[in-house]
Amino acid sequence: MSEMTPYVLVLYYSRSGATATMAQQIAAGVESVPGIQACLRTVAPVSTTCEAVDPEIPEQGAVYADLDDLRNCSALALGSPTRFGNMAAPLKYFIDSTSSLWMNGALIDKPACAFTSTSSLHGGQESTLLTMLVPLLHHGMVYAGVPYSETTLLETHTGGTPYGASHLAGTRSDRSVDEHERALCVAQGKRIARLALALHAIRQEAL
């Protein structure tokens, strides 16, 4: 990734793989927009054992995010499976570590979006997306959902909300991300990329 090219940080936590698949589709949508790149990052699990330490680099998938990834991004796409209508603890733990960015206003006027996966159709998709945006608003970010101009929102029978892309994983978390859900992820990636470029240019003019 070029240091000079603006990028969308696609930051997620995934337990069974569905949220990771969604993140990859959002990144594909970002990468389809000229002039901007996607940066895929994940977070480490949270252990109930104080002595447990994970390796600094995961054995597979995206590498772990650090604050510089967030500080230097032009936009953020935040993804998590649902945990009782809220984001998973590992992602919340990372977000809770961003006070220094909040104090410096590092994320003000940068666009953000969220995406999620649930085991059941009414298992908290919308409440998870809505609660995920709360810390982003505290950071002064500009939240972007999925508008109904994306007609797939009217066609899907599983995941997909105006608050952000979503996925129905099934009670065993083994249902693949389907065609409609993928399309909405790609559309969300394209939208956040376009907004990132527009707001990036505005912020550069203000410097």
TrEMBL record:
<dbReference type="InterPro" id="IPR008254">
    <property type="entry name" value="Flavodoxin/NO_synth"/>
</dbReference>
<protein>
    <submittedName>
        <fullName>NAD(P)H:quinone oxidoreductase</fullName>
        <ecNumber>1.6.5.2</ecNumber>
    </submittedName>
</protein>
<dbReference type="InterPro" id="IPR029039">
    <property type="entry name" value="Flavoprotein-like_sf"/>
</dbReference>
<dbReference type="InterPro" id="IPR005025">
    <property type="entry name" value="FMN_Rdtase-like_dom"/>
</dbReference>
<dbReference type="GO" id="GO:0009055">
    <property type="term" value="F:electron transfer activity"/>
</dbReference>
<dbReference type="InterPro" id="IPR010089">
    <property type="entry name" value="Flavoprotein_WrbA-like"/>
</dbReference>
<feature type="domain" description="Flavodoxin-like">
    <location>
        <begin position="8"/>
        <end position="193"/>
    </location>
</feature>
<dbReference type="Pfam" id="PF03358">
    <property type="entry name" value="FMN_red"/>
</dbReference>
<dbReference type="InterPro" id="IPR001226">
    <property type="entry name" value="Flavodoxin_CS"/>
</dbReference>
<keyword id="KW-0285">Flavoprotein</keyword>
<keyword id="KW-0288">FMN</keyword>
<dbReference type="GO" id="GO:0010181">
    <property type="term" value="F:FMN binding"/>
</dbReference>
<dbReference type="GO" id="GO:0016020">
    <property type="term" value="C:membrane"/>
</dbReference>
<dbReference type="GO" id="GO:0003955">
    <property type="term" value="F:NAD(P)H dehydrogenase (quinone) activity"/>
</dbReference>
<comment type="similarity">
    <text>Belongs to the WrbA family.</text>
</comment>
<keyword id="KW-0560">Oxidoreductase</keyword>
